Amino acid sequence: MTAATFTLVFLVALALSLAAKLWLARRQIRFVAAHRAEVPPAFADRIALAAHQKAADYTVARTRFGIAETAVETVLLLALTLGGGLAALVAWTGSLGFPSLVQDLALIVAVALIAGAVGLPFSYVNTFGIEAKFGFNRTTRRTWLADIAKGVAVSAALGLPLAALILWLMGAMGTYWWLWAWAAWVAFQFLVLALYPTVIAPLFNKFSPLPEGPARSVIEALLARCGFANKGLFVMDGSRRSSHGNAFFTGFGRAKRIVFFDTLLARLAPDEVEAVLAHELGHFRLHHVLKRMVWSATLAIFFLAVLAALAAAPWFYEGLGVPAAPERPGVALILFFLALPVFTFMLGPLSSLYSRRHEFEADAFAAQNASARSLAHALVKLYEDNASTLTPDPIYSAVYDSHPPAALRIARLSTS
Ligand SMILES: [Zn+2]
Description:
This protein is mainly α. Helix content is 72%, strand content 4%. The chain has 16 helices and 4 strands. It has helices spanning 3-34, 49-80, 85-94, 100-133, 141-172, 177-204, 214-225, 262-267, 270-285, 288-311, 314-319, 329-344, 348-369, 372-385, 394-400, 406-414, and strands at 207-209, 233-236, 247-250, 257-261. It has a 4-stranded mixed beta sheet with strand order 1-2-4-3, with helices on both faces. It is globular. The relative contact order is 0.13.
């Protein structure tokens, strides 16, 4: 392939993915607006018209915001690649007189800082504009800033050693460096998983043991019934930042924890908390977490092999606006991660489909081990509290949604 051909391939893929995103966003906005006037009949007795309309307005506002974000991301991508931004950064970091590994690390840090700086205003407007307007935000500007500082520190502490290791492997391990890099990446995933519950998450939130009470009793009974060793039940002060509610598992092996947002416990009755936890247990029992990890490890080895081939091809660099620099592995690494999403956008629906199948399976598990009725009640409350639309555009939902639309989930639960 020539550099000019690859530039054309890149631009066509970018234009197609952009057109698809805009088309989907427009569909979603129109569909939600068209169903704004009336609560869907299946929910009419439990959701008020005002809540339904709030969900519609929130969905439209977020979708519009997403369009603006996509536009700016596209401009940044073009500025860095064909616009010559990355070429300038490569030349600048190359002129500093550092060893090549340090030059490449400096390049990665520079690109990460630029992308982070471009993303900051969006994070600000999302939190203090949209989330605040719809009454969800509880973050102060101080907490928001502290979160960013901590996020940068954690990314640097974990990401820089990983980047240095991968760059070193790329330079030192010859043709099959990507197998070594893959092993390093998998080990890194486990490290983060092990550190997350006890080291990373407590930097951002307070975790306290779930207090004694009716909720704790039903939860312990459910865990015993499902043969699940109780390694720790925690409440997280999610209400410090947002009124959105959730429950999740973190860690693995001995470090496994079950975490409930305080906002979820405040809103749901004990039988509903039990049903939500049964759904989460279903994900574990049915090995969804393991399957996801195997799937992402498989994708990673495939993408690393592709990266290894591209890093040796001058047209890959030149086609994306950077002079070929096979002696600087960091350049290939950054170009690859910048250009990859343009080509993998069409994989999104497959991943969403896979995820939605797991959600149905976990719902069925919950229906068997707790109460389908309670889970349906909990879902209605969570959809209402999170202002998730009950009437998403079917095609938009098929492409993006990791969870099936509420109406489908509840319809399945009511027949189980
Ligand atoms: Zn789930």
